Amino acid sequence: xxxxxxxxxxxxxxxxRSRRILLTGLSTYWGGRLAQELERDPEVEAIVGVSPQDxxxxxxxxxxxxxxxxxxxxxxxxxxxxxxxxxxxRLIVDPIGASAKATHxxxxxxxxxxxxxxxGRDSPVRKFIFKSSAHFYGSERDDPAFFTEAMRRPHPPxxxxxxxxxxxxxxxxxxxxxxxxxxxSVLRFPNGLGAELHTxxxxxxxxxxxxxxxxxxxxxxxxxxxxxxxxxxxVTEHDLPGVFNASxxxxxxxxxxxxLLGRSYLPVLPPWGTGLAAAAARQAxxxxxxxxxxxxxxxxxxxxxxxxxxxxxFRYTTREAVQAYAAHLRTRHLRREDRTPYVYERxxxxxxxxxxxxxxxxxxxxxxxxxxxxxxxxxATERQRVDSGR
Length: 390
What we know:
By secondary structure, the protein is an alpha/beta fold. Helix content is 40%, strand content 15%. The chain has 14 helices and 13 strands. Strands 3-2-1-4-5-6-11 form a seven-stranded parallel β-sheet, with helices on both faces. Strands 7-10 form a two-stranded parallel sheet. A two-stranded parallel sheet has the order 8-13. Mean pLDDT is 87; it is low at 1-13 and 364-390.
């Protein structure tokens, strides 16, 4: 029996299992974290990560291809590597250091190109996973207490990021409608929080006092960075079509968040002319994007029962995620990096992966029996196939 037949038989036996994965945005924090998580799964045969920039996290068996979102090139990779699952983690939801034009091209044009690479009658892709954001719902004064996946936005999107997210999700929904054989999953995450995660909200929470808007104490949900990775991995393991709110249990008002962090809540931003105050704060090094200002007014809550109904369990509630971040803030001055930060060097990676001179040992998180004999030779062969475009 051929390898293709073997893979088809395995997919039929376990239809929800992703075995050959293309991961976009490998250079992003989420792309790298998810690749590390998928590498621990011995059932995953191949992981191909694409990005125009170098990976930022150390990886052991993820194949890196330096390419952006050119759909023709991505399609060649999908075909050559017989990709069955594509996970798109590129969406920019916090425009730190990115222009509006670059953000739109990444979020909308890039998403359309990735989807185009997954389509076609001869495409091996049978699962597409899209990492989205709770910014899809917006933040307004008359919002429901908790958004469910079946709810539409009460108001048209006002900010550029919200418009991008709505447009990108519309492209994903159109793809799902046209490609019934592909399982399409969309995860909408609220604000992430973690020791290694740097966002506009984490910068706000790192201040000696937590600033707010006068007259408002908004509701917040913070999802721990580990739960974001775990939710994406969960959807990768199972066939779960549809949209899911990937939001933890519990809601805190911002003054409670400040208290858990050992900070004071200081609502000094004016309720009128807030944008001008945000511009002044930006000059002082604090970025308050428009969608963040909306949250600082009205907050937001997401209903997570649909995702939990699939068997997924969050390790952290909103309160526990904030408490974990508070512990990080208390001890970070005691911990200094005693190692050189990881820097991707292609030649070194080639040597470590494929040279016969390197004696390979099982990773500590994997049992030796879970490392297939000849897996490295298979990886080398797979890389040659991808590079040659066959």
